[in-house]
Every structure is written in structure tokens, then in C-alpha cells.
Amino acid sequence: MDWRMTLTDLLSPAAVVSPLRANGKKQALLELSQHASVLTGLPERELFEALLQRERLGSTGIGDGIAIPHGRMPGIDRLVGLFARAEKPIDFEALDGQPVDIIFVLIAPEGAGADHLKALARVARVLRNQAVLEQVRRAHDPAAIYAILAETAAKAA
Q: Which of 57, 93, 96, 126 has the most CB atoms less than 10 A away?
């Protein structure tokens, strides 16, 4: 992966979940681990544990209703993203104390190093764009959400 990586390099149309019907952080992470398992072929329980372990270090809720849970996993050879829009905002213990309705899960290979950090920065940059955030929050259909993110990625490339 290089610095020109875009969100669509991480995300496929099948990796957009809307609406996510979870009532809390753990339930959201569990549901997203189920989806990530289908996308990656990795065990759901191990994905959930990796995401939960990272959350124990501190919330991945970055503010503005956005969370970017992430983890490193053996048995995967590329970065994989999963986007979700929650039906109802979830308490994610975010830095700003606000509930979260936009969640972008990032699963990285164990040895991803700097690529993992670059991908996190790219995701945060795109999702902190207020115009993109508003469009995504208005869209309910996974295909429409993917199209918004893909269009944003194409403009940024």
C-alpha cells in the first residue's frame, strides 16, 4: 500500500452495513466482527477480541459521531475496511462524549506497521469532511453510501 491509497482500496460494496442495529458498543463490535468474518474469512470471535482489546486501551470514538475501531490480525494479507451507519447513535465512550452513528472498522495484517497508521489517518480525514459526513448520514442504502465514499475517494486521488 502507498500514500495514494483511497477508501475504496479498503472497502468493497459488500463492506457497507446500513442500518447497523446495535444498542451498545460491544453489540456493535460483535455485529461488525460477524460482517468482517464474512469479508475476510477470519474467525468472528478472534476479530471481536482484537477490536475489543484495542477499545480497552481507549475508545476509538474520535468525536463528531465517528468511531474507527481497528485491530491487527494474523492470517490476513491486506488491510480491510468495513463501514457502518448505526440506526440509533451508540454510546462509544468517544473523546467528545457524543454518541457514535458512523463506524469504520479497519482490520490490518499483523505486520502492517506504518500502512495501518496511514490507513487510519486516511479514514479519519475523509470522515471528518463535514460534507461527506452529512451525505453519508442522509443515505440509508448501503449502495448509496458506498457510492458517496467511492466518489470522495476518486476526488481525493
A: 126
